[in-house]
Amino acid sequence: AAAMARELYTRTNQKIYFAGLTLEAMRRAESGQALNAQALLQAERESCLFHLYGGTLSLCHEIAGYYHVAPANAPRVEMLLNSSVLATSPSPELAELVELTLQSDSWLAHLLAAHAALFVPPHTPKAAKVDPTLPLINAVNLDEEQAAPELSSAELEAWRQQLKVLALRFRETLTEW
Question: What is the distance between the alpha carbons of residues 151 and 62, in angstroms, rounded to a whole number?
Answer without folding.
Answer: 28
